[in-house]
Structure formats: structure tokens, C-alpha cells
Design goal:
The complex is a heterodimer. Chain A is of the alpha+beta class. Chain A contains five helices and five strands. By secondary structure, chain B is an alpha+beta fold. Chain B has two domains: 44 residues, no CATH class; 76 residues, 2-Layer Sandwich (Alpha-Beta Plaits), CATH 3.30.70.3460. The chains are: A alpha+beta, B alpha+beta.
């Protein structure tokens, strides 16, 4: 059994990334005085619990040409927000769909979606198509394209 | 003189080889949890492990891959996330961006075309801590702010095929 405190420490070290070598976990396990199999078991358990979604990577999507990144926000009546949220979440080009509380009077929108594309026109065309196909014209919305990136993925899992 | 903060989104896209494209598409999904994950990936793609490792290292160096490792679900890790926005006057954007970025609890931070122009994600251990940090940011930047924690998640799955 790995003590709780050590688990947090492992997660914190993992969050900085795993080494890209033949046996990445062997190298990391040494650092924690664990067997390679214990560390692999720990990661597998964290995935089963849902604490870790998966092992993978964070991409710099701008470097891949996905520079048109729109946050599309919607004002949908509370009684249909689940229905509309599920419809929007199923669209192929929607990469994220959350409900968030309105901040009245400053901010009326309660549904947040992200659409990524290579060009603004492409993103806007996708959006019109989504609206037409699902009869979403009646809901007020706004499109916020990003223009500069100040920080990406900087927050650490454990903040001391 | 305040340094111009952040990077423009109009940077040139990286030129990618066929193997780089294949790896980027494959690695956006689950990496097998085995002693030698890169060997498994190599077998799947029909290339050598050495090629996979050197290509991933190269993509990291070119900053196409920001980080390689676990993707956390912070809500299951006794943490909270919130999307916050500030209304920042144009001439103060660099100052405020630097101030906001100086908080370790700030993850993403983007400038968007809107009255509410600075959007960032806050991560904290609990909602009290999160609200305190938000209040501190609003006070120290002297900008109006809104704090929009997540109420329901309908979909999250960023997959960008190249």
C-alpha cells in the first residue's frame, strides 16, 4: 500500500509529465522507492477511479494550425438547458459544452461551448449549420474568438 | 514599460511528417499503461520504438506537444475549477495579463474579442479558496470580474485530427 501523502507526491510529479524513454515508469518508480509494477498499479487504479482521465498529451493546437478558437455562449431557458446542452455536446466540431450560472445583469449566458477550427469563416459556417440543423435560432448567443494566449495549462495539481 | 504579454495566435503552423501526424492522432487517445508504452504504440503504427520516442521528443522540442503524461479530472481529485472573466481596458491588457498569470492557480488565460475580454481558468482545492483568489484578482487588477463555475458538463473531448 502506498501512503496517502506519497500518492499526492506521485500525482504532483506525474503532472509535470512522464519521461519519453523506453521504460518511463521504471525510471519514475526509482524516484519514489517503488517497484515499477506498484507505480503501474497505482496509475491503473487512478484511471479506474476517474482521478486520471487517461495517459496522453496536451497539444499546442495553435502550432497545428487550429488558430480559430471560438467560445460560443448561449442564453437558454433553464427548463431546456439539459436538452440543448446535450444537442450541442453531440456536434462533431464542439469540443466542450458546459452549463455555468448566469451573472446577471452583467452576463446573461448559461451554456458555454468551444469550437476549434483553422479559419474563422470555417468556425462560423459550422456554427450556422448547428443552429440550422437543430433549430436553435431563438436562443440569444455570442461568439468570442480568441486573439492572444497568455497562459496554457499552467496550474499545478497540488498548490502549496 | 510593460512587456507585451502572451503570444499572438497568428503563428505559422508546424510542418509535420506523416509519422508525426499519425502519432499526434494516436496520442490524443489513451496511452497503454504498460512498462513500455512506446513499444506498444510502435507496434500499432508499424514503426520502431526508437522512431516513436525520437519523434515524440522532437514534437515536444518543437512545442507541438505541451506536456506528456496524465490528464487529470480535477473534480475527482478534491479540487475545483472555474472559468472567470475580466473586463480589461485596451491600454491595460499587458499589465493585467501579467498580474493574472502570476497566480499559480491560473491555468489557461486567453484574450478574446468582447467587452469581457480576458478569460482564464482558476483551479483551487475548494470553492472558498477559489472565491478568495478570484476576489483578490479582481481587487488587485481593479477590473470588473465574473466567476462562472461549472454547473453541468454535457461534453468534453478535444480531439483535433491532423
Amino acid at each position: 500500500m502506498i501512503p496517502e501523502e506519497k500518492k499526492l507526491n506521485i500525482l504532483d510529479v506525474l503532472s509535470a509529465g512522464i519521461p519519453v524513454v523506453e521504460y518511463p515508469y521504471k525510471e519514475l518508480a526509482k524516484q519514489f522507492n517503488l517497484q515499477e509494477s506498484e507505480l503501474l498499479g497505482f496509475i491503473q487504479d487512478a484511471i479506474t477511479d476517474g482521478k486520471i482521465k487517461r495517459m496522453g498529451m496536451v497539444l499546442n493546437h495553435h502550432k497545428l494550425g487550429f488558430v480559430a478558437n471560438a467560445m460560443v455562449v448561449w442564453d437558454v431557458p433553464d427548463c431546456v438547458v439539459d436538452k440543448v446542452g446535450n444537442i450541442l455536446g453531440k456536434q462533431k466540431c464542439v469540443t466542450l459544452c458546459y452549463q455555468r450560472p448566469r451573472q446577471l445583469p452583467e452576463w446573461r449566458y448559461n451554456l458555454f461551448t468551444m469550437i476549434h477550427g483553422k479559419k474563422r469563416q470555417e468556425v462560423l459556417a459550422h456554427l450556422s449549420q448547428i443552429i440550422d440543423n437543430n433549430a436553435l435560432h431563438e436562443y440569444p448567443r455570442d461568439v468570442l474568438f480568441s486573439v492572444r494566449k497568455f497562459k496554457q495549462g499552467g496550474a499545478r495539481y497540488v498548490n502549496e | 514599460m510593460i512587456e507585451r504579454a502572451g503570444s499572438s495566435l497568428l503563428q505559422k503552423p508546424a510542418v509535420l511528417s506523416e509519422l508525426e501526424k499519425k502519432l499526434i492522432n494516436r496520442l490524443q487517445h489513451q496511452l497503454p499503461i504498460t512498462e513500455s508504452p512506446f513499444q506498444s504504440i510502435a507496434e500499432e503504427l508499424g514503426v520502431s520504438e526508437v522512431e516513436v520516442i525520437s519523434t515524440i521528443r522532437n514534437l515536444k522540442q518543437k512545442k507541438v506537444i505541451t506536456r506528456f503524461g496524465p490528464l487529470f479530472d480535477i473534480t475527482k481529485n478534491e479540487g475545483v475549477f472555474s472559468l472567470c472573466a475580466l473586463k480589461v481596458p485596451a491600454e491595460q491588457i499587458d499589465r493585467v495579463a501579467n498580474q493574472v498569470n502570476s497566480y499559480t492557480q491560473v491555468a489557461h488565460n486567453y484574450l478574446r474579442e468582447h467587452r469581457w475580454n480576458m478569460w482564464f481558468v482558476l483551479a483551487a482545492r475548494n470553492s472558498d479558496e477559489l472565491e478568495n483568489i478570484f476576489d483578490e484578482i479582481v481587487k488587485s487588477t481593479r477590473c470588473e470580474g465574473i466567476n462562472c463555475p461549472k454547473e453541468a458538463e454535457y461534453f468534453v473531448g478535444l480531439f483535433l485530427p491532423v
